[in-house]
Design a protein that fits this description.
mainly alpha, MetI-like fold, 13 helices
Length: about 300
């Protein structure tokens, strides 16, 4: 009985030690989060934009298409905080609803391209026969500037929101695949992976349960940068008339409407432009800070 009691007390003590270690690691991560100015500022900006997306129906209850032709091209006032456009539509309301489209496209592209890129990168790193084929396709797509490839794809697909997401996924998936492959190649050479191969573990188990979790850090960081890039390219496509079709309140469409009256109604270009800058800046700061949090060696190298 004494041995059993001592064993039980030892297990309890071990559980308590593990719990304390997890609590210390969590507290350390929280302290590092608030000490990292980049990720903190980026998080604040991103949360603010997320609130704008969620509160768009309250910011502009009349919707983004309500027109007051008699009040067209009115400057910022108490009735219209950011002025009105050339159809008398409230610019603040269109920017708020445009955030739903622009942020929705950016998040969809980041998620879908991350999943596809992760799959391609993992299988390319594990199977050498696939590596040369998949990576050459990725190299060919990456050799074309992203905006030009997106314009060419939209010319083939047609101007539609779903096609914008599809085109941008084709543009950014090779970048994710390259990043995941680089991380997976390092993990594949580890001793425990070789041991699992020797024991006859199936390939899917090695890839998804042992290699994939070790590639999540660079994948998440890369996804935040792609989120920001997708917002910029979507706005550029919509500005050129090859993206989200008008009169949808995309940030690029708002800028396109304002280019003809930029000297008469500067608010139609300035405020949407500031919104795009803030969103991209916030996501890039968040991604840069997140890279420092997830990879302490990078932070030490900077110092």
């Amino acid at each position: 009985m004494g041995a059993i009691q001592r064993s039980f007390e030892g297990n309890v003590e071990l559980s308590r030690i593990k719990s304390d270690l997890k609590k210390q690691q969590r507290n350390l991560l929280i302290r590092r989060f608030f000490a990292n100015k980049s990720v903190l500022i980026g998080s604040i900006i991103s949360i603010f934009l997320a609130c704008v997306v969620l509160l768009a129906p309250f910011i502009a209850p009349e919707g983004p298409y309500a027109m007051e032709v008699a009040n067209r091209l009115q400057g910022p006032s108490s009735a219209h905080l950011l002025g009105t456009d050339n159809f008398g539509r409230d610019v603040l309301g269109r920017i708020a609803y445009g955030a739903q489209i622009s942020m929705g496209v950016g998040s969809s592209v980041a998620i879908i391209s991350s999943l596809l890129g992760m799959m391609i990168g993992l299988y390319a790193s594990y199977f050498r026969s696939l590596d040369s084929v998949l990576m050459r396709i990725c190299d060919g797509l990456m050799a074309i500037p992203g905006i030009l490839l997106a314009i060419a794809l939209m010319a083939a697909f047609g101007a539609k929101t779903e096609n914008v997401v599809l085109a941008l996924c084709i543009v950014f998936t090779p970048h994710i695949a390259r990043a995941v492959r680089s991380a997976a190649l390092v993990v594949r050479e580890q001793t425990y992976i070789e041991a699992m191969k020797a024991l006859g573990a199936p390939s899917w188990r090695i890839i998804w349960l042992h290699i994939a979790p070790n590639t999540l850090s660079p994948l998440i960081v890369q996804a935040t940068f792609i989120f920001a890039d997708a917002i910029i390219i979507e706005a550029a496509l919509s500005f050129l008339g090859a993206g989200v079709p008008a009169p949808a309140p995309s940030w690029g469409n708002i800028l396109s409407d304002g280019k003809m009256v930029i000297f008469q109604a500067w608010w139609m270009t300035v405020f949407p432009g500031i919104t795009i800058i803030l969103s991209v800046l916030g996501l890039n700061l968040f991604g840069d800070g997140l890279r420092d949090l997830l990879d302490p060696h990078t932070n030490q190298a900077k110092k």
